[in-house]
């Protein structure tokens, strides 16, 4: 096999990321050397590659699905929102500055398109197949002229495009037809067909609609993927987390001991890398929910203050909602609190920020003996160490530099020398994302939390987060293998879009882009 495919979507969150991962896992199980690719990603969930580059977590997850090491080539442009109108631009794994949406789309696209095409060509020279993920919808007609992630990259690479639609939202037939019809003729020529996602019910009732869609567009549907719980791994968008009542799917597993543990995650503004708590939710008997009210901390055995792209903004939000006072009360009562990255920073004594918020000196919550100074250079690292006598791995993505003035060490080099973070009473803090994925440390940490909370909770001795992640990725591969026309997908990847696909006249100016 030699070629590629672009997985586009009728909307954001249609399922492009998981479909791309599923296709990667299906192909690698068939002996194909495959790589994922997303030219431009907008996400607050990111990851650090072994060479020290920052990329979207979704692409790191897709690389794991493909059983390859993630690199910056797989996500050359990452946009990290700092507000509704501006984002930090990460190019080839390095932050290059803040930019407004108008400024980003106003003048750099030719240079960026050249960069992303070069990255894609490097991957194509190394792998048998490259499975690209689009962003949002390819029919954003106001942005087509500057597009580098949907039809812009598909046309540059001559890749066929499969459009994914979320039927659970409704309107999927109109979305498929309208998305295709709004495209220019040259773009429509690459739209090979459709993939229905999140279907519930009897497929035979859907089939007449699929036949009519083919009559209208001249394009087939390559599969109907059933609605499957628990597949939302490494979600991209930290701005759209469902807050109230959110409980991780695996939390329904019965506890290994007599009690459950309740974990409340403060859903701070611009929340980043909230996937840190997935490892907690993977433990039988641990219930994880996202909260935004002080009263929701009352019954929590552990409160997690997660990472954020706006530490000072998150600090103000906690104070406005009474959550800051609730955290202060918890600390005084020696009830456990864990701060990760930005959450760790706002638990300290004060913050000097002339970089992220430009707020200067800001008093923090004072729960940890730490002073934070924001540096213009971003720390990107893949550290290893030890905590509670167990090995720990993690990754760091932060501008804040910590000056620790006391407390107990949290993470050490194994010889007792402090590496990162600190602990003061029942309050813990670290810059390390992903540390809870280290199984032995997570079990010992939860044992301490249960003891402090007075819960008869016992971590399961055989929970392996890495194995659970592999099982999820295999489930994605199974979805594609069992419910998609894999022979047809194989032909698309090898040979491109079929010749002579009909043009749908849209009657809209966007189609003449």
UniProtKB/TrEMBL annotation:
GO terms for molecular function: ABC-type vitamin B12 transporter activity; catalytic activity. Gene3D superfamilies: 3.40.50.880, P-loop containing nucleotide triphosphate hydrolases. Catalyzes amidations at positions B, D, E, and G on adenosylcobyrinic A,C-diamide. NH(2) groups are provided by glutamine, and one molecule of ATP is hydrogenolyzed for each amidation. This is Cobyric acid synthase. NCBIfam families: cobQ, PRK00784.1. The keyword GTP-binding does not apply. It comes from the Bacteria. CDD domains: CobQ_N (cd05389), GATase1_CobQ (cd01750). Keywords: Cobalamin biosynthesis, Glutamine amidotransferase. Residues 6-238 form the CobQ/CobB/MinD/ParA nucleotide binding domain. InterPro entries: Class_I_gatase-like, CobQ/CobB/MinD/ParA_Nub-bd_dom, CobQ_GATase1, CobQ_N, CobQ_synth, GATase_3, P-loop_NTPase. Belongs to the CobB/CobQ family. CobQ subfamily. Pfam families: CbiA, GATase_3.
């Amino acid at each position: 096999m030699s070629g590629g495919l672009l997985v586009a979507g009728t909307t954001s969150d249609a399922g492009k990321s998981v479909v791309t991962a599923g296709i990667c896992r299906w192909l690698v199980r068939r002996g194909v050397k495959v790589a994922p690719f997303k030219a431009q990603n907008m996400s607050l969930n990111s990851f650090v590659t072994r060479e020290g580059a920052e990329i979207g977590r979704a692409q790191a997850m897709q690389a794991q699905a493909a059983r390859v090491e993630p690199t910056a080539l797989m996500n050359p442009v990452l946009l990290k929102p700092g507000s509704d109108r501006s984002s930090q631009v990460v190019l080839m794994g390095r932050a290059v500055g803040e930019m407004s949406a108008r400024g980003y789309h106003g003048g750099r696209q030719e240079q960026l398109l050249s960069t992303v095409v070069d990255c894609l060509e490097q991957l194509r020279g190394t792998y048998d197949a490259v499975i690209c993920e689009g962003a949002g919808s390819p029919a954003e007609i106001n942005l087509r002229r500057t597009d580098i992630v949907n039809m812009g990259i598909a046309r540059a690479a001559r890749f066929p495009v499969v459009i994914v639609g979320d039927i659970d939202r409704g309107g999927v037939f109109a979305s498929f037809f309208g998305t295709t019809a709004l495209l220019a003729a040259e773009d429509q020529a690459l739209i090979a067909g459709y993939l229905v996602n999140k279907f519930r019910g009897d497929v035979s009732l859907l089939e007449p609609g699929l036949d009519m869609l083919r009559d209208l567009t001249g394009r087939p549907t390559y599969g109907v993927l059933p609605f499957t719980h628990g597949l939302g791994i490494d979600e991209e968008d930290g701005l759209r987390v469902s807050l109230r009542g959110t409980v991780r799917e695996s939390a329904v597993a019965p506890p290994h001991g007599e009690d459950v543990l309740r974990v409340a995650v403060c859903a701070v503004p611009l929340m980043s890398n909230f996937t840190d708590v997935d490892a907690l939710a993977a433990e039988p008997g641990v219930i994880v929910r996202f909260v935004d009210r002080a009263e929701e901390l009352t019954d929590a055995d552990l409160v997690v203050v997660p990472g954020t792209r706006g530490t000072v903004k998150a600090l103000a939000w906690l104070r406005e909602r009474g959550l800051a006072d609730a955290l202060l009360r918890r600390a005084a009562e020696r009830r456990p609190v864990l701060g990760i990255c930005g959450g760790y920073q706002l638990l300290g004594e004060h913050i000097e920020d002339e970089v992220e918020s430009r707020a200067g000196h800001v008093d923090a919550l004072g729960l940890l003996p730490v002073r934070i100074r924001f540096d213009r250079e971003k720390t990107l690292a893949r550290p290893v160490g030890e905590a509670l006598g167990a090995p720990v791995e993690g990754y760091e993505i932060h501008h804040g530099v910590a000056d620790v003035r006391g407390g107990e060490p949290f993470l050490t080099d194994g010889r007792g020398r402090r590496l990162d973070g600190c602990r003061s009473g029942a309050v813990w803090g670290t810059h390390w994302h992903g540390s809870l994925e280290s199984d032995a440390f997570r079990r010992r940490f939860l044992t301490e939390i249960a003891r402090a909370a007075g819960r008869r909770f016992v971590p399961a001795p055989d929970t392996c987060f890495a194995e659970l992640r592999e099982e999820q990725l295999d489930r994605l591969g199974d979805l594609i293998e069992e419910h998609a026309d894999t022979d047809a997908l194989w032909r698309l990847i090898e040979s491109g879009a079929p010749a002579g696909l009909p043009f749908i006249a849209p009657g809209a100016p966007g189609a003449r882009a």
